[in-house]
Amino acid sequence: MYNGKVFLVGAGPGDVGLLTIKAKKYIQEADVILYDYLVTDEVISFAKDDAELIYVGKKAGQHTLKQEEINQLLVNKAKEDKSVVRIKGGDPFLFGRGGEEALFLVEQGIPFEVVPGVTSAIAVPAYAGIPVTHREYASSLCIVTGHESIDKAIVPWENIAGIETIVILMGVSNLQEIVQKLLKSGKSPDTPVAVIHHGTTNQQKTVVSTLAEVNLVSTSIHAPAIIVVGKVVELREKLRWFEDKPFFGKGILVTRPILQHNSQMPEFNLKLQDLGAVVYEQPTIKIISPESFDELNAAIGRIKKYQWLIFTSVNGVRYFMQQLKVCGIDIRQLHGIKIAVIGPQTRLEVEKYCLTVDYCPNEFVAEALVEGLKGYDMNGKHILVPRAKVARDVLENGLREQGAITHVVTAYQSVYCKGERIKQLLVEHKIVVITFTSPSCVCGFCSIFEGEDIQAYLSGVKIACIGPITQKAAVELNLRVDMVAKEYTADGLVEAILEGVKG
């Protein structure tokens, strides 16, 4: 026996939210992951940083490895005393060859577990508004493969034609032949048929027809797709829900910054996805450490000198707290120092450290913070502001006018990202809305098109900004802004896009 073990894991039909808790746990713990063509990047992203990722996907006519080679690879990795996860789309035991892999592991004396996945055979029709059974429509269900191997018995279509609901996996390339076999076996030409492409994802496309005519209307549907044959397809007209979401199928470009060694504001992406959008996360700037922390560290070293600590962003909080630890300063040294922030997300970040925010303006801009602090006696007060290397001087100047002694230090900086992928998405007309969450994101975006006609890329594209400061930066760079959040938060930006898309 070996200390290594293999986990045959079902990734579900595509929507990462349908991944099981157990599947996620084993993926996070795995030393080695072998994954298929239909396993999404979102699922793979749960892997730990040092996991070995091996793509073994198969498409029609394109096999990365033969099945025998995959079997042996599972054994070899397990014999290295590693935890090996084999991820398959859908369920590993439903036309996934998981049974073959399990038998091979048994023959080689390799311990294994099976983690069932939500099968696309039921989940995909459900996302298209089609229940595969219904008391008044269908009480029998058959799931078959439409991709038959030449070395095994063919599907007995003549025996299953009488079943009320037939779900066919991997059959889109053989659709014409399948239709002919069902008609020949006695299935009525008027039987409703649905062909569902990229089911449970925000690229889902559903074509509804009849058995007699489905070949004529499904020419735009390609694999991966699922075919549903039966009267239950009629229920889609009343029960469709997924494709009726307000942003369904609309490509939204998220240009939010990348924070070094971390991910920032993923809730924004999730909110857009929950509303049906196809989210393309292509940051235009990356948040990184400054050239030197000397200035910030020196300020931290004399932290008791300050009466106020002001944070203008989540990044400022994170880098300040990081350097507080690096400098060996006990957080209790902040006792007696008042804290002001801009925005609810910055407040939440401060509160993670069990610190209380003394002031946060209702309007999340530096001007509002300056105005609000007039209610405090700032004359002669020493104020520390850890912020980005390049930022507006509104806060610094406004507080000095109130008599404060303001010390602005660089806690982080932003650098522009390459944007070839953004250009490609725009050229392919996959983007409907571009979102900007800061002036620096706008500048980073425009830098991608230096020397080119940026307007030529933006035909038919709307621009949404998180607030007036970001809007001003966009307008100054000759961008037309269509939507501005009333509340300068991620939720506010989502609401603005909702209104703009409806309009």
Automatic annotation (TrEMBL):
Keyword NAD: no
PANTHER family cross-referenced by the UniProt entry: S-ADENOSYL-L-METHIONINE-DEPENDENT UROPORPHYRINOGEN III METHYLTRANSFERASE, CHLOROPLASTIC, SIROHEME SYNTHASE-RELATED
Domain named Tetrapyrrole methylase: residues: 5-214
GO molecular function, one term: uroporphyrin-III C-methyltransferase activity
InterPro entries, per the entry: 4pyrrol_Mease, 4pyrrol_Methylase_sf, 4pyrrol_syn_uPrphyn_synt_sf, 4pyrrol_synth_uPrphyn_synth, 4pyrrole_Mease_sub1, 4pyrrole_Mease_sub2, CobA/CysG_C, Siro_Cobalamin_biosynth
Every Tetrapyrrole biosynthesis uroporphyrinogen III synthase domain range: 269-495
EC class of the enzyme, as a word: transferase
Provenance organism: Candidatus Desantisbacteria bacterium CG2_30_40_21
One Pfam match: TP_methylase
GO biological process, one term: methylation
Protein family per UniProt: Belongs to the precorrin methyltransferase family.
UniProt lineage: Bacteria, Candidatus Desantisiibacteriota
Protein name as it appears in the record: uroporphyrinogen-III C-methyltransferase
UniProt keyword list: Methyltransferase, Porphyrin biosynthesis, S-adenosyl-L-methionine, Transferase
EC number: 2.1.1.107
Nucleotide-binding in keyword set: no
